[in-house]
Amino acid sequence: MEMLAQYLIHYSDLFQDMELADEGDFAEWEDGLEQHMSDLLEGDVEPSGDLGPLPVDALDPEHLRDFLGWFAVRESSNAELIQAYADVLLAWVNFVHDRGWLKDEEYMGFVEILAEVTPDAVRVARLSRVLFHFVRCGGGISPRLRGKRFSRFVEGHGRVVTIDSHSILFDFDNMQEKIGPVALPQVILDMIEEGDVFDIELGKRGDDWVIVDIGPVYPGSVYVEVEEYQGLDKRS
After folding, report:
1. Domain closes at, from 68, 98, 133
2. In a domain, 59, yes or no
3. Which of 76, 124, 132, 179 would disulfide-bridge 170, Cβ 3.0–4.6 Å?
């Protein structure tokens, strides 16, 4: 629940920052940010978890989708932890509904979203962990080839558009070409679904693209194209 509070306060549309009125306000904000960074490096900052008088009916099922399928998997690649988050959220939704604080229609919206996003969130968390170790161990590249220069790098959020028996193909939103194929072991390919978005860096050696670095993986049910998104205003 502390993690949920962190998401709602800092990344959801429920706690918008006050707009800066003039240059003086901006300078004060900038000074405060610098001090905050210094305190953070010293370990003196406790994350804010006070939701204040936020009413339960201010929450939308899409908040739980974003929390579980975006924020939680960005913070952790521990699939068991992600599953535990989902279990706690479902128990909390049941608790709130049993006491009459959620109408039946609203309750079903929360339950349906959790049922939809939980398997995907657990899957991509496990996938992120496996990919991290795969890349750290050399990414399946022969040691003889690891020292060869890359002719090109591509990094950013790459959406999986094609999966075949040996590799995947990426589409980066800011590019007019598909990147790949990127060869992966079958055991990893079996964990990937079309539409998944990788926070990734790819390098090209000769005709081959390989993973140079890997971050979180997000399920397509959460990480949608900008023009497709009709939900909440997400800030980061």
Report:
1. 133
2. yes
3. 179
Which residues have C-beta within 8 Å of that of residue 222, sequence separation ≥ 6?
Answer: 65, 66, 69, 70, 117, 120, 121
Q: Is residue 169 very low, low, confident or very high in pLDDT (cuts 50, 70, 90)?
A: very high
Q: How far is CA 41 from the centre of its chain?
A: 24
Verify that 32 and 83 share a domain, yes or no: yes
Q: Containing domain of residue 82, as a range?
A: 2-133
The DSSP secondary structure of 132-187, one letter per residue, reads HHHHHTTTT--TTTTTSPPSEEEEEEEEEEEE-SSEEEEEETT-SSEEEEEE--HH
- 102 and 164, same domain (yes or no): no
Peptide bond into 185 cis (omega under 30): no
Asked if 129 and 145 sit in the same domain, the reply is no
Phi/psi at 191 (nearest 5 deg)? -90, -10
Residues 61 and 164 in one domain: no
Q: Give residue-wise pLDDT tens across range 3-50.
A: 998 899 888 888 765 454 455 566 776 777 777 677 767 766 566 667
Quick one: pLDDT at residue 231? 47
As a whole number of angstroms, the distance between CA 125 and CA 72 comes to 9
